[in-house]
Amino acid sequence: MSGLLEARDLTVQFPTGGGWLRPTQQVQAVRAVNLTLQAGEALAVVGESGSGKTTLARALLGLVPISGGQVLFAGQDVATMGDAARQAMRRQVQMVFQDPFGSLDPRLTVGGIIAEPLQIHRIGNAASRRARVAALLDLVGLPADAAARYPHQFSGGQRQRIALARALAPGPQVIIADEPLSALDVSIQSQILNLLVELRARIGLAYLLISHDLAAVHHLADRVATMYLGGVVEVAGVEDMFARPAHPYTAGLLAAVPRLGAGKRVPGGTLPGDIPSPLAPPPGCVFHPRCAGATARCGQEVPALRPLGAGRAVACHHPLVEVV
Amino acid sequence: MTAPLLQATDLTVTLGPPGAGAAVIAGLDFRLEAGRTLGVVGESGCGKSMTALAVMGLLPNPHQVGGALRFNGVDLFGMPAEGRRRLRGAQMAMIFQEPMTALNPVVTIGAQIAEMLEVHRDASPEQAARQAVGLLERVGIADAGRRAVAFAHQLSGGMRQRVMIAMAIACKPALLIADEPTTALDVSVQAQILDLLLELQRDEGMAMVFISHNLGVVSEMADDILVMYSGRAVEYGPAQAVLRAPRHPYTAGLIATLPDIGRRQAVLPVIRGNVIAPRQRPAGCAFAARCDRAGADCAAGVPALAVVAAGHQAACFRLEQMA
């Protein structure tokens, strides 16, 4: 079965440094990632900042040039597809950003913002676009008169609804959402989470959710991929991963989530250190300097992502779940 | 009974010129004993950070304050500016959400910590520099001697927060105010910083005001919790009692809206509407417009904090329905 949106050995490098008498170095922000988003599924990518989550999302959208591997949409290589197919793909894959204050044009009305992708993709005429804007506003739970107002007249949660309506305008199959909740107040986050769940049920959308909020990931996702220093270290169904993480890094992230009402914290047992610089990745398993279970082998040999059964995969020499 | 380390009595803060501003804190009472942690929770605009700035004497000008704020029994509002300045850094210190904006970008981190000791402890430059390295070690920065000559931008977010903590504890303050200290950090680094703060508190015996919008983090850090909404306390009491048996509809709502890793719900409960700005605060209960239990009488007056259990208070006209 081929997926809707697929990364095959996807690698993204950025040149860095450089300058007078200093050589330019290549930073691998995404290292040989293989990941498939199926139609209608919600796949979350988790990991610390610097793990490459956002760069992966941008590479899938074609917003950053890829240095190696392929991006496939509906089985077709994006790099070699014709202009018409690429245009179609751009309609099908839409993005929602973290900051609903920075991602909406302040000089356009909300109606103009939502209609803009329709104009760009030459969908419908003026009258049908107006009708579509009204339908989209209703879909995301905003009043019809919102169309004539400007973004600054709305709260953060309402702006994120506007951003969702804009993303939905061209009728996409995939929404890539990069930290869509983290700029919102706590009481508003659950409203947007509910909206994301509801939209998926009504339209059959697929989500690629980039988030560091593991509770939100657990609520929304079907499958989860953990990234560390540019590579995928674990992929699993959400319940499997949260109940029995296979990679020590995933286990460390889950253990670090603060628990409400469980009493005061007892220091200890936390994941030590910081994510290393991608300019100087550690040899062997890139996670081994922070791993309590690391052995000599981990410092020498790069673990491959290998299947664990039940759709799970882990890149670890000593996974916490038995390999079948 | 001795005086608490910090006590607010009917604290009000109004920003803006006299007569023109809106009260960002509208009558707040709390107390904090030495060595304990008060968690302050609430959403943006509820007055958490302004409470911290009022204690530190760092409120933006122009402002008016009312009520009383006592530190070790001394009235902070009656104190001259020079006295407040001497308290800051030495007796009370504060760490912020984004260390990059709080640290000086053009002074090495070692020199910034040393400056604290020179100003407040009359340390010689050599002593101060040596102690600064010791403090960096104390907050868990490896290779502290070499790191002391680094600049803030050369450090990771977690390390910058450690540097800010080192500066804050340099003079062994009795009170540390931490305003969203882990909000900008990854969950793994957050856990490291929380551990560090607890260890420092255990060793130095300092009291903490821990401000966060993250109820999970506050649950792990606080002895007592103050839940604020629109410049007022809506619930106040022992942390686990407030979180396990909340009595105010806002507290209960905040807890219910959080997705729970242990229990997946089809639809999350929501608190309808939005946080109100201080200027839009109604004459009655500020939460009434978003409250499922509100009735006509909720608009009539501001509910006062009432005791609901030992040491546990809530400010709601519908308390009997929340039992």
What share of residues are in beta strands of chain B?
15-25%
Could you state the CATH homologous superfamily of the domain at 5-102 and 173-256 and 274-281 and 304-314 in chain A?
P-loop containing nucleotide triphosphate hydrolases
Radius of gyration of chain B: 21 Å
Task: Return the CATH topology of the domain at 5-102 and 173-256 and 274-281 and 304-314 in chain A.
Answer: Rossmann fold
Give a structural overview.
The complex is a heterodimer of chains A (324) and B (323). Chain A is of the alpha/beta class and 324 residues long. Chain A has a domain at 5-102 and 173-256 and 274-281 and 304-314: P-loop containing nucleotide triphosphate hydrolases (Rossmann fold, 3-Layer(aba) Sandwich), CATH 3.40.50. Chain A has 9 helices and 12 strands. The mean pLDDT of chain A is 93. Chain B is of the alpha/beta class and 323 residues long. Chain B has helices at 48-56, 81-87, 99-102, 109-121, 125-138, 144-147, 157-169, 187-204, 215-221, 239-244, 249-257, and strands spanning 6-15, 22-32, 37-41, 63-71, 74-75, 92-95, 175-179, 207-211, 224-229, 232-238, 306-309, 312-314. In chain B, a hairpin with a 2-residue loop joins strand 11 (306-309) and strand 12 (312-314). Chain B starts with 5 loop residues before the first strand and ends in a 9-residue tail after the last strand. The mean pLDDT of chain B is 93.
What are the salient characteristics of this protein?
heterodimer; A: 324 residues; alpha/beta; Rossmann fold; 8-stranded mixed beta sheet; 4-stranded antiparallel beta sheet; 9 helices; 12 strands; globular; B: 323 residues; 32% helix
